[in-house]
Amino acid sequence: MSLRFAALGLLAQEPGSGYDLLRRFDSSMANVWAATQSQLYGELGKLEHEGLIEVAAEGPRRRKMYAITDTGRDALREWLATPDATPPRSARLLRVFLLSEADEPSAVEFFADVQRKAEEELKHLAAILQEAQWDGRSDEFGRIALEYGLRHHQMEANWARWAIDRLTDEQSASR
Which CATH number fits the domain that encloses residue 30? Predict the structure, then answer.
């Protein structure tokens, strides 16, 4: 469901083709909401069918330029104003809760993997922060979303290190 609103939001900022939207996803939104080409093009077709976007122009090789409609803008604003009623679910935390069923080296490796991935993502997001040009209202909110990602992955790396220390201290104490 959120892919439709991500696409609507990008088109509200600036009309574009499916290719343009994929590039914008990759450069600005991938750490928040990823989309494959087939997912995005399928969603664009649904949005057009529902009257939330329209083909504003057609270019060479039948490349369609999409724009948000007033109905689409209203739907986006309604979604933005509605708090998420779905309780969050996390497959990762479910695994953590059940890790007592794994052997201790596997549990430690699980957290080491979480730490590695969080640190890799931190490096990636820090590079985006350094390279991006922050000018304009939509960029300001992109910067705020990026800061969330930086803080989240920093917390995740710290949490994984804490878990490893806790498990390895317990392993030492139980020997």
Answer: 1.10.10.10
For residues 65 and 132, state if they share a domain: no
The β-bridge relationship of strands 64-68 and 53-58 is antiparallel
Question: For every residue of the chain, which 3-state class applies, written as one string?
Answer: CHHHHHHHHHHHHCCECHHHHHHHHHHHHCCCCCCCHHHHHHHHHHHHHCCCEEEEEECHHHCEEEEECHHHHHHHHHHHHCCCCCCCCCHHHHHHHHHHHCCHHHHHHHHHHHHHHHHHHHHHHHHHHHHCCCCCHHHHHHHHHHHHHHHHHHHHHHHHHHHHHHHHHHHHHCC
**Are residues 101 and 77 located together in one domain of the fold?**
no
Summarize pLDDT for 23-42 with one digit per residue, the tens: 888 777 766 777 888 999 99
Q: Is the pTM value of this prediction over 0.90? A: no
pLDDT surpasses 90 at 170: no
Q: Which residue segment(s) compose the domain that 54 sits in?
A: 2-81
75 and 8 co-located in one domain: yes
